[in-house]
Task: inverse folding
């Protein structure tokens, strides 16, 4: 089976990995396919007559297909077109023939390699593990387009551009990797353009000459966050993975990616740049096609009528208990295993089964009055195998002593986890191919009931719930009451709800952090000491935030260790003084003070002189670029200035920094550690000035 599919000069080239290397096969006969259904009184034979004469159509015929999971097979038009580009062009043309919805199109917006594998009924899972060669080119070298240094698997190639390119061509040819791991996809066009200027006609990074640009870079917004999608390129016979644009490789590993290739039918190169939703959709598309269901280009599902009461009850998220701010000893964390995916599977929550006509009036979803069909839905069929696989992987992880096998299993488990995490939210996503808002609402309703019932069970058996959020609860023994062992209670709850409740962790103590400007508890900010271990768990505080400099992260973790060691505020403050001293005496490596922030808009669109703006100005002055959604990394050197001199880029190699700025960052991190004990930043400042002695017993 091919691990890579290339479209070259109108042909399709399949690349298959073998034990001895790689083979390829070229075919000229492949034509991509889309489907058309007619509505609003439009005539299918008339569409057929028109398309049969269309210059981009190689063949058109009437077939019977299901246009959704809720429909039986009905007449639609299958249209084979002469090229990939013609698929979308023709779809837009047909959609414009009538009013919106008169002509509905299916199987239109598939990625190129995935489309071929899906339509040909082949799996792109490689027969052996692909080999990987890493190439890194510095940002400023790329900007100059003079490749005087390329790092190959941590070994630098240096010299004039001709020497570097010649040596690189020789290494790639000798190593013959299946995958090129690049620090940025821009390496491809920059190296090829340099080779063209030097008349190095033999230079090639692929297994055949040439390269292609598949897509330009773009900026997008998702859930209030601006993201950047870099340009994508293609090399014949080799998969390109852009380290700056690969979620699944970065969150799992090659083994995790290979598992998802098998599940989704997405070849490695496409899977590497795909989002979670993209992969989940691919898995769903494969299941839909197995059931004879076409994939809509634009969703036409409608939201069914709801009463005012249903709207009020449905428009809610998962249940949360406000955390009890403070430090709590002897705390246990209990988590439901993959709660939302398991709700989908055990309650048969599926777009085509919820609020079905055959069981109308039955109240299956708590509080909402929705019915769910008894016939098994497609979404549980998609997620059930993933849940079973992850359970088996976790079991094997507990039993294996082989580090290499453990790494493989960890990668697979992480890859599955991200798919399961997204499956719930994707049901409420407006652009989801097979999503439905009623599924989203039903899952939340089941989850709320499960968590409330679990809370009542725990409290009835001597445990006090100090925090709970969506699928997790934290409990501590209720003073003066006898406690039923948690393993017994977990088994009882598991049997009652048909979803496994697991004892996630036992903590010596846990501190729940209040909001920055309120005494109310922050839902996702806490830290604690794991019982019988030297490990700590951190969630939501500065040391877990991507923008936090390494120095501040290290300091905050040390302050938490000081809290554990001394169990009083004075011990933490005294430890803080050491970190402040390091800042003030210049003992800190500037590299550990780098701030990483995401750019939200173009430089010209900013109206305030922020640190990000100063960094972007320096980027522009050095001939570099940053698009919205990309990161900018800098060190604050003089926060009192409003010009680009306020910061220095991480790549500039300076050895100075703004002491007051980083001292303030330290105090902010210290506040997160001490606020569960009632101290805020002002109290810390006062202590540092007066050496005030305060013990934990006061709280």
Result:
């Amino acid at each position: 089976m091919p691990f890579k599919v290339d479209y070259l000069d109108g042909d399709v080239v399949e690349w298959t990995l073998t034990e001895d290397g790689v083979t390829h096969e070229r075919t000229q006969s492949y034509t991509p396919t889309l489907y058309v259904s007619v509505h609003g009184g439009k005539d299918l034979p008339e569409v057929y007559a028109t398309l049969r004469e269309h210059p981009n159509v190689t063949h058109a015929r009437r077939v019977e297909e299901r246009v959704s999971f809720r429909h039986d097979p009905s007449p639609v038009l299958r249209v084979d077109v002469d090229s990939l580009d013609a698929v979308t062009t023709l779809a837009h043309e047909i959609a414009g023939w009538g009013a919106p919805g008169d002509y509905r199109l299916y199987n239109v917006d598939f990625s190129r390699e995935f489309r071929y594998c899906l339509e040909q009924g082949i799996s792109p899972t490689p027969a052996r593990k692909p080999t990987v060669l890493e190439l890194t080119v510095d940002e400023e070298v790329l900007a100059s387009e003079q490749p005087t240094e390329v790092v190959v698997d941590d070994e630098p190639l240096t010299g004039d551009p001709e020497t570097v390119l010649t040596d690189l061509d020789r290494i790639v040819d000798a190593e013959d990797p299946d995958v090129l791991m690049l620090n940025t996809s821009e390496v491809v066009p920059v190296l090829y353009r340099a080779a063209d200027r030097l008349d190095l006609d033999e230079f090639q990074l692929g297994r055949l000459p040439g390269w292609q640009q598949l897509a330009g870079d773009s900026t997008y917004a998702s859930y209030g966050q601006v993201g950047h999608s870099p340009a994508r390129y293609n090399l014949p016979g080799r998969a390109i993975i852009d380290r700056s644009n690969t979620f699944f490789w970065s969150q799992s590993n090659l083994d995790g990616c290979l598992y998802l290739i098998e599940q989704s039918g997405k070849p490695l190169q496409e899977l590497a740049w795909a989002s979670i939703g993209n992969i989940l959709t691919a898995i769903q598309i494969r299941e839909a096609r197995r059931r004879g269901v076409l994939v809509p280009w634009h969703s036409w599902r409608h939201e069914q009528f709801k009463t005012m009461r249903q709207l009020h009850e449905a428009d809610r998220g998962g249940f949360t208990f406000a955390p009890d701010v403070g430090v709590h000893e002897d705390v246990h964390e209990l988590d439901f295993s993959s709660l939302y995916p398991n709700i989908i599977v055990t309650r048969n929550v599926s777009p085509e089964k919820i609020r079905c006509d055959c069981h109308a009036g039955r109240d299956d979803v708590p509080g909402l009055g929705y019915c769910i069909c008894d016939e098994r839905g497609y979404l549980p069929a998609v997620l059930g195998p993933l849940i079973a696989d992850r359970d088996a992987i976790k079991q094997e992880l507990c039993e294996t002593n082989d580090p290499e096998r453990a790494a493989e299993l960890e990668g697979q488990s992480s890859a599955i986890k991200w798919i399961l995490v997204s499956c719930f939210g994707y049901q409420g996503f407006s652009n989801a191919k097979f999503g439905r808002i009623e599924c989203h609402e039903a899952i939340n309703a089941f989850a709320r009931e499960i968590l409330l019932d679990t809370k009542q069970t725990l409290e009835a058996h001597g445990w006090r719930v100090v925090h709970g959020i969506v699928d997790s609860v934290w409990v501590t023994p209720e003073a003066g009451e006898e406690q039923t062992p948690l393993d017994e209670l977990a088994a009882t709850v598991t049997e009652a709800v048909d979803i496994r409740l697991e004892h996630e962790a036992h903590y010596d103590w846990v501190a729940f952090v209040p909001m920055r400007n309120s005494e109310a508890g922050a839902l996702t900010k806490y830290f604690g000491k794991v019982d019988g271990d030297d490990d700590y768990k951190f969630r939501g505080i500065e040391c877990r935030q991507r923008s936090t400099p390494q120095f501040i992260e290290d300091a905050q973790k040390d302050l938490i260790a000081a809290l554990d060691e001394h169990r009083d505020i004075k011990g933490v403050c005294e430890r803080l003084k050491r970190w402040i001293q390091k800042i003030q005496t210049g003992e800190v490596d500037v590299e550990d003070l780098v701030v990483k922030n995401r750019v939200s808009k173009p430089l010209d669109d900013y109206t305030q002189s922020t640190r990000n703006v100063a960094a972007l100005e320096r980027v522009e002055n050095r001939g570099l670029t940053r698009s919205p959604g990309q990161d900018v990394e800098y060190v604050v050197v003089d926060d009192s200035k409003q010009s680009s001199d306020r910061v220095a880029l991480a790549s500039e190699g300076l050895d100075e920094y703004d002491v007051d700025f980083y001292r303030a960052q330290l105090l902010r991190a210290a506040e997160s550690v001490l606020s569960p004990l009632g101290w805020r930043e002002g109290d810390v400042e006062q202590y540092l000035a007066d050496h005030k002695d305060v013990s934990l017993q006061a709280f």
